[in-house]
Structure formats: structure tokens, C-alpha cells
Write a structure and sequence with these properties.
This protein has helices at about 25-40, 80-100, 120-135; strands at about 10-15, 45-50, 55-60, 70, 75, 110-115. The protein has about 140 residues and is an alpha+beta fold. The protein has a single domain (about 10-135), classed as 2-Layer Sandwich (Alpha-Beta Plaits).
């Protein structure tokens, strides 16, 4: 996830093979507690949507988002590492609850820059908020 400071990003991911990732109200709440722990300290969350098999965020980065974070032999950023920790911690909770193992999310979390010169911010903002209404879940 390559990011720049003081920019808006649409960040999203889904379950492997589009599998369900939230199974109960408590799962959504657990995920949001992890968001508060791993994501909120490193960016401003402008909006989000949690669906049964995927999630979306619009975030604004700052200098703290991009502070280098050493993770083993890999240098990451606070925000990229935050999403890694969010997904791995949440997957561990779900796997323990369901006696499963392995990855719950697709490997690559997507981060799309929201360019000032496009209508993408308005489009994605509406898309995220309408997703629960228009979805077949």
C-alpha cells in the first residue's frame, strides 16, 4: 500500500473468494474495536461501510500515517501496518470462534487515491453509503 500524506484514499478489501467475513453483530463490533485500535490513530476516517463479505473506508492520511514502521525484515508505514494488524487480529478472532484457520481476507488490501480533479470522491462516498441499501445481502 503506497500512500502520500494529506491525501484521501478509498481503502477496501473482501473475504477470500468473496467469502463472508462478518457472521454476527458481535463480529462487526469486534472489527470496529480493532479499527479504533489499529487504524484511527494513524488517519482520519471520513466514512466506512462494513458488509457481510467486504469493507470500505475513506480516509485522509497525515504525516503520522506514513511514518516508517519496521515489521520483521519489512519496512512498512503506520497505516499499512495498521490494516495488516486489523485484518490479522480480526481473522484470528473469527478463526478461533469458528474453529477454523488460515487467511480470511484477500492478500492485497486496495488503496485508491481520490484525486482532487475527479468526481470519484462524490461517487465513492455515495457508493459506500448506498452499498447496504443496494446490496443483495
Amino acid at each position: 500500500m503506497t500512500l502520500e500524506p494529506h491525501q484521501l484514499y478509498h481503502i477496501y478489501n473482501q473475504g477470500n473468494r468473496r467469502q463472508q467475513i462478518f457472521f454476527s453483530r458481535e463480529d462487526y463490533l469486534s472489527f470496529l474495536r480493532l479499527v479504533r485500535k489499529y487504524i484511527s490513530p494513524y488517519c482520519e476516517i471520513l466514512c466506512y461501510c462494513l458488509m457481510p463479505n467486504h469493507y470500505h473506508f475513506i480516509v485522509q492520511t497525515d504525516v503520522n500515517s506514513l511514518t516508517p514502521k519496521q515489521v520483521g525484515n519489512i519496512t512498512s508505514t503506520n497505516l499499512a501496518n495498521g490494516f495488516r494488524m486489523l485484518q490479522s487480529s480480526y481473522a484470528r478472532l473469527v478463526n478461533n470462534k469458528q474453529n477454523e484457520f488460515g487467511s480470511l481476507f484477500k492478500q492485497k488490501t486496495q488503496a485508491k487515491l481520490i484525486d482532487d480533479n475527479s468526481n470519484y470522491l462524490t461517487e465513492v462516498f455515495h457508493y459506500i453509503h448506498q452499498n447496504p441499501v443496494t446490496s443483495f445481502w
